[in-house]
Model the fold of this input.
Amino acid sequence: MEIWINPECSKCQVALETLDAEGVEYTVRRYLDDPPTVVELEQVLDRLNLDPWHVARLGEPAATELGLVDLPQTPQHRSEWVEALAAHPILIQRPIITAADGTARVARDADAIREAIDLH
Done:
């Protein structure tokens, strides 16, 4: 199991505390320091069964600066979304937990964290 975090994010801290309390083994990826490549991001999106706009933090100033808030959320623009998220990882929702069974969860609440642990 791997968890993508921003150490300053309170939801990431809660997810780590929950994983620790449950005794789950995991690795941490500080995705701001070690950004995912376009290929890695596509793989995680496939595991999440989501499109890139579903994991984009559109409230971030970078989203406005890059024009993501106005970029169509369509298959024709998917690669532009993925490239923007890979180049500006601050725009990726967090935490993201990838499980050994090939699935993944955006673990922003207790239920999503529990689902990830159950899939472990």
User: Anything to note?
Assistant: Residues 36-93 form one domain.
